[in-house]
Write a structure and sequence with these properties.
single chain, alpha+beta, Immunoglobulin-like, 2 domains, 4-stranded antiparallel beta sheet, 2 helices, rod-shaped
Amino acid sequence: MADDHHRRKNNTALKIRLVVLGVLVLLGVVQAATTGTVGIGALSVTFRSSAPTTTTTTTAASSGGGLDGALGTTTGETPTTSAESKVGVGSWKQSRGLLTVEVNRVENAAGRLRVHVTAINASTSKMDLPLASVTGQDDTRRDYGASLSTSKWPAGIAKNASISGYVELDQKAPAAATRFTLTFSGIIGQLAPTGGAVSVADIPIPR
């Protein structure tokens, strides 16, 4: 009788172990299916590896060139063209007292004359050659003034020094004109030339 009771008890324990084992196997199958890993911690076994996900972003390029293209607007600066200049290079100068005025270059752009000048003050006192007092006259008797807006002339000359710049005349030279005279008048300074003027004559007009 005792043996039968012991045998039934062992059978019950075996059944319980089999049920527990079956549950563990089932859980392992579920874990493997969902995570690819069976086990816990260091005793786990991985059956699959997770591959990195690659995302590709496609950007569509606009064929209209932005708003400018859509509106048909051209961007950028429009190039400007200038008339071809004729250039004469030489040395035409005049000295009065301790002041020397030299013309060394003349540019003719469609009749507009740009005269490059160097003035040398050999005195011990400052001199001023005002741009507003610069005049010209060509051999057709046409008179010119200096363009205050486009000329580049420093005017003041320190003692024993020189200045350089250019004077643009305010009118076009006629086709018949071949030479002109440039006059600096109203010169200011303690040692300025007598009469306060220097004229450089017989300057050729390049054609």
